Every structure is written in structure tokens, then in C-alpha cells.
Amino acid sequence: MKQAQKLGTGPEHVRRENIRSILELMRKEEAFSKVELARKSGLSTTTMTKLFKQLEATGLIEELHVSRGSMGRPRTLYRLATESVCVLAAVIDIDTVTLASAGLNGETNIEGSFPTRKPSARFFTKLAERLRDLRKADGRKPLFVSISAPGLIDQHSGRVVLSPNLHWLEDTRPAKEMAARLKVPANILHEEVALSLAQRGDPTLDPDNFILLDFSSGVGAGVVCNGKSLTGCSGFAGEIGHITIDPAGRLCGCGNRGCLETVASDRAFLQAIPGKITMADALEQLAEKKNKAVKAAEATMKNQAIGVATAINIFNPATVYIHSVLVKSLTGYINKMKAMAGKKALDPSAACCDIRPARAGKLQGTVLHALNSVFSRDL
After folding, report:
1. Taking 70 as the threshold, does the pLDDT of residue 272 lie above it?
2. Which of 163, 208, 238, 369 could form a disulfide with 146 if both were Cys (CB 3.0 to 4.6 A apart)?
3. What is the CATH architecture assignment of 11-80?
4. What are the φ and ψ backbone dihedral angles of 176, each rounded to 5 degrees?
5. CATH superfamily, region 203-359
6. CATH of 85-195+363-376, one of 3.40.50.620, 3.30.70.1290, 3.30.420.40, 3.90.380.10
7. What proportions of the chain, in percent to the nearest 5, are helix, strand and coil?
8. Sequential DSSP letters for 94-151
9. pLDDT at residue 128 above 70?
């Protein structure tokens, strides 16, 4: 009787792992050759030639040009596909849906947006139409669509289970809707996971243990522990905005009162300024140091410090990234936040934690998620 092959040790498994490792090397280079990647990876040039042939056939890489090597011998350079294929991204937020296309090198090509408002039953039809328009304007073949959204998203089914600020999204499956309409593979991720992804990749920082605190439309956290996103058993982790800090406080979209979200978000800052004004008006007043705007910003920041200190105490991160309009608009925000959060957090945990502005937003993270999905799929 023929002996059964051990799981994960056959030639097909080795081929897939080789492709994944080579793609990771390719993502770090603007241009590359077979010989260079063979040297860096330790694979033979024969194996590398086979892998390149497969990646060209699937449209993931494209020939760049022929150059001369050090000994005068011509060599063909390649790059990740930028002319023929792309990924699409959609960020569903409380007020706006933002769209983008990007090449496999991560460079965003075309962006667009439309108001979210209170949508009709045609929301997903409209979203698909806008993505088709984006695809047409881009001109490249989309390989994947990633969608980020607020709320509790079941990572197994893709169903939006709860969305305190966008209740109409509940019990929908946005990725399934887009995949069916666009005939392109799609996935959905929590907006805080998207923001967390956007903070990765800076070689000057330690990306392995950090918290992303999003104080924008609502309040949420993206947690990265030892290089991996902490999502929980169903994908619901990170809802720090719904811890109660004032049981008799303002009613929150989740149904409880006095959640951190009601006093620490950018929307809370706006609502704390008397009169019906836009965020642009509020930030202009803050820039002009109008008393009411400054007081509203400082009160909001104090509540944000509670969230920062809580995250530091619970997760012991090396870095806390903060996403809020106040970071750039309130003079000395980061230094003030370090002092305020440092007083509220436990000294040993605060001492080993740095606090920084978020370096990129939800759209960049959603694009990166689409790229990761393309590069991690089985070929």
C-alpha cells in the first residue's frame, strides 16, 4: 500500500509557499530580476524561472525593460503589475463612501466619493455602479474588491451584525453584494482593521505591538499583537468606544448611555460647539482660537486621554496611533496627550509606550487589504 503523503510537505504545498515568499520579496522592490530574487530567496534560477512564468500568466507581474548587467550581459527586469490589473477599495463611513483603485504596487490611481446619508434599498446597486465607473475610468482589470465599514462584522460570514451609527447596514453582506454584481472576488473588514493595516510598513517604527485608536466618526480600536491583528473569535474586537464612562450620559447609537464614543469622538467635539455648524467651520474656529471651539476641543481631548490610557493599561503596546481631526488642529496635541494619558495610565506601561499621529487613513488600509488578499490567494 502506498504511504499517505504528510500534510503540507508535498510539492504543491512547497510551490505555493515559494510563490508567497517571492511575492513578499517583490512587494519590497520597485523592479527586480529572476537572478536577484533567486539570490535573495535561496531558490535556484530554474525554480525562479518557473515561478516567474506562472506569475506572468496570472497577470501579477509584468516585464519592465532589459538592462545591462555588471558584465555587460542583458537582463530582463520585472515589476508588480501596474498597467494591466488593479484592486478596488470602498470605505463606507457615516457621512461619505470613498472609492479608489490601485495598482499592485499600492499606488492609488483614481479616487472618488459620494454621500452616504440615509440610503435607499438601492445603496448596494449604487455602490456597484460607482465601482463600475471607477473600473471603467481606471481601464485595468480588477482582481479584488475590499470594503471597510464600521460596526461588528462577522469575519466568518461577512455579515454586518451591528452598526451603531449606520443601522441600515445591519444584517447585510456588502462583500457578497459587490462580488455578485461586479463578478470580482470581494471581502469586507472592520474600519479599524483597515486603519491598523495602514500603520504597518514604516521601518523606523516597531510594527509588531501597537494600538490604533480611531476618534473620528465614532470611537474604535485596532489592536496588533506580535504582528497580528487581534480580532476576537467572531471579528468583533476593538469596540473600545462602547465602554461606559458616564452611566447617566448621552444616549449612544449602540443603545447604552455615556459611552466613550459620545464624548471623545470628532463628532462629539462638533456637537459640543453651540449652533449648527459644519466640521470645517468648527476647525476654522479652532484655528482662530475661538473660545467655544477651544473649550470643546480640550474637553474632547481629555476624554480621548481616558481611551488612550485604558488601551495602554490593557494591551501594553509599544505605540499608540491616534486618528482624529484634533491631532493636527489642536496646537500641541501629541505632547499634551502624552502628558494627560501618562497621568492616567500605569507608570510602567506608559513609560514604554509612545504616542503618535496615525500615519495613514482607512482608504490606504482598505487598499492594502485588497492587495494582501490578491497576494495570499492560491495560484
Report:
1. yes
2. 369
3. Orthogonal Bundle (1.10)
4. -60, -40
5. ATPase, nucleotide binding domain (3.30.420.40)
6. 3.30.420.40
7. 40, 20, 35
8. SSEEEEEEE-TT--EEEEEEEE-SS--TTHHHHHHHHHHHHHHHH-SEEEEEEEEESS
9. yes
